[in-house]
C-alpha cells in the first residue's frame, strides 16, 4: 500500500493552496460576502496582479521578508499563519545537522523531564514521537511506555483518547492544525507524511482536516479537559506549558499544569 499522502490529502499544506484558502477567509474577515479577489490582494500588497497570480499558481517568484509581511497584511493573517508563511522564505538547519553530536544534550533533557515530580511532563520531537516522559506522565497516560509511542497518533487514532479527552473533536482539530504547520516547515518529511496518511483514514479526522486551512504553531497555554478515572474521580483540567529546547529543532518539552 502506498504510504504517501495524496494530493487531495496535502491540500492546505502547500503555499498555493494556503493562499487560496486564506483569500477566502480574508473576504470573511473584511466583511465581504465572497472570496477576496486576486486583484485586490495584489493592490493591497502594492504588486501587480500578474505577480500575485504567479505566486498563487506555484511559480518561483522572489519572496523577501518585506514582501511576505505585506502579503500577510493583505490577507489579514493571524500570528500562526504569519509564522507558517515566513517559513517559505527562511531556511532551517535540519535536525540531523543540529543533533548528530548532541547525545549528551539529549541525555540532560531526559534527566530534566524525569526530575519533574509535581506534574506530568514529556519531550517530543518534530513528529510528536515521545522521546522522554516522567513518572506522572506514565501514570496518567500508560501508552507512553509503548515502543514508538507517538502523541499525535494516539490523540487522533486511538479510541481511548476519545474517551479520556472530554472535548476530543476540538482538540483533534487543533492537533491537525499543528500537523499542517509542521508540514509547512517540513513538506518532504516522510514521517509527517505517513502520519497524515494514517490519521486521515479516520473519517472524523478527514472531515476536520477538510474544514479549512487552520494553522497553529505551538499550543502554549492550551487547555485540556481530561477524564482519567485511574488518576481522579473528577474531571481534570490542565494547561500545557511548552518549552523549545535549544539545539533540538522541532522538539518540544511540555508540562501539563493542573488548573
Figure out the total of helices: 13
The portion of residues assigned to helices is 40-55%
Q: Which overall shape is indicated by the principal axes computed on the Cα atoms?
A: elongated
**How do the helices and strands follow one another from N- to C-terminus?**
HHHHHHHEEHHHHHHEEE
Quickly give the structural class: alpha+beta
| Spans of at least 5 consecutive residues with low confidence | 1-11, 91-100
Count of DSSP strands: 5
Largest sheet: 5 strands, antiparallel
Distance between the termini: 45 Å
How large a portion of the residues is in β-strands, by DSSP E? 5-15%
Strand order of the largest sheet: 2-1-5-4-3
What does this structure look like?
46% of the residues lie in helices and 11% in strands. It is of the alpha+beta class. A 5-stranded antiparallel beta sheet has the order 2-1-5-4-3. α11 crosses α13. The longest helix has 18 residues, at 168-185. 29% of the residues are buried. The model is unreliable at 1-11 and 91-100 (pLDDT under 50).
Topology readout:
Elements: H1 15-29, H2 38-45, H3 49-56, H4 65-74, H5 79-86, H6 95-99, H7 103-114, E1 121-124, E2 130-133, H8 135-140, H9 151-157, H10 159-164, H11 168-185, H12 190-199, H13 203-209, E3 222-226, E4 236-243, E5 252-258
Antiparallel strand pairs: 1-2, 1-5, 3-4, 4-5
Helix pairs in contact: 2-3, 2-4, 4-5, 11-13
Compact overview of the structure:
By secondary structure, the protein is an alpha+beta fold.
Amino acid at each position: 500500500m502506498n504510504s504517501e499522502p495524496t494530493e487531495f490529502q496535502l491540500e492546505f499544506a502547500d503555499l498555493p493552496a494556503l493562499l487560496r484558502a486564506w483569500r477566502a477567509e480574508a473576504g470573511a474577515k473584511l466583511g465581504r460576502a465572497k472570496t477576496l479577489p486576486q486583484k485586490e490582494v495584489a493592490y493591497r500588497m502594492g504588486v501587480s496582479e500578474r505577480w500575485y497570480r504567479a505566486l498563487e499558481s506555484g511559480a518561483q517568484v522572489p519572496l523577501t521578508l518585506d514582501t511576505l509581511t505585506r502579503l500577510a497584511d493583505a490577507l489579514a493573517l493571524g500570528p500562526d499563519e504569519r509564522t507558517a508563511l515566513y517559513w517559505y522564505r527562511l531556511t532551517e538547519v535540519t535536525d540531523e545537522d543540529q543533533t548528530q553530536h548532541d547525545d549528551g544534550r539529549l541525555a540532560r533533557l531526559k534527566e530534566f523531564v524525569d526530575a519533574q515530580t509535581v506534574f506530568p511532563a514529556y519531550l517530543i520531537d518534530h513528529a510528536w514521537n515521545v522521546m522522554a516522559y516522567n513518572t506522572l506522565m506514565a501514570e496518567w497516560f500508560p501508552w507512553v511506555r509503548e515502543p514508538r509511542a507517538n502523541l499525535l497518533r494516539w490523540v487522533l487514532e486511538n479510541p481511548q483518547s476519545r474517551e479520556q479527552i472530554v472535548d476530543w473533536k476540538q482538540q483533534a482539530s487543533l492537533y491537525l492544525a499543528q500537523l499542517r504547520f509542521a508540514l509547512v516547515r517540513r513538506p518532504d518529511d516522510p514521517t509527517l507524511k505517513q502520519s497524515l496518511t494514517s490519521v486521515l483514514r479516520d473519517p472524523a479526522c478527514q472531515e476536520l482536516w477538510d474544514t479549512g486551512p487552520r494553522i497553529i504553531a505551538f499550543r502554549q497555554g492550551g487547555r485540556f479537559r481530561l477524564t482519567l478515572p485511574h488518576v481522579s474521580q473528577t474531571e481534570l483540567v490542565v494547561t500545557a506549558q511548552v518549552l523549545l529546547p535549544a539545539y533540538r529543532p522541532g522538539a518540544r518539552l511540555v508540562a501539563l499544569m493542573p488548573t
